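Give me structure tokens for this 250-residue protein.
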Amino acid sequence: MRLSPSAVKPRRNCYNRAALARTKEPVIDVDGVSYLRVPIKTHVLTEEDDAVEVVRRYAVPQSCPDDVLFIAETGLAIMQGRQRHIDTIHVSMFAKVLSRLVTKSPYGVGLRSPRAMQVAIEEVGAWNVLKGALAAAWGKLVLRRRGDFYEVAGLATKMIDAEHTMGIKKYWDYVIPGPVRIPETCRAIKEVTGLDACVVDVNDIQEPWVIGASFGDELARIVARALKDNPLGQGDECTPMGLLRRAGPS
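Here you go.
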């Protein structure tokens, strides 16, 4: 059953202490304005869950007018059934070779995992991955910069979570590529709940970015900066989404 925005009522208490307590530092300043970040705890999500229904069930009761909902891309990907168990990934020799060329990082495995690299190849195509690898080598050796691989191969490769990196035990043996139909999902959430929504890639390693949203670039910039310290956490918090709420001048 679809609900109209008017049928979805937020709580009156917009500064619910229990909700805010889940963030160690709930307030952050962006351009002289203070924002509250309210992580939303859910059950362990699966492909049986519907994103709009999960938002309606967990986020809407804690929301206030003008809140912005942000959803972690991994959580949405899981609800879309995008996760791949390691036993179902058949690693090619091409993936094995390319994965060895990925720079070793103390922060995580990423595409250094042959399985994650294989998923990347299946997501964007072998030719695009090869072009990305060549661009990365040129950027590193000649231009002395990083990040060219993702720009050339495609941002879908940037969203891939390698196996044995998930904080949720259920998904420990899974490689999880990024979600699809992101703009459509954000618009559906906005239509049903009245909440502006976005899908974000936020972790403890790199700068956060808004992948897609029901709003424009300026608000997306604010959301990304407001999430720079990863308020949703990186472990088993079961907080795949949150609310961003303007609190006033800092």
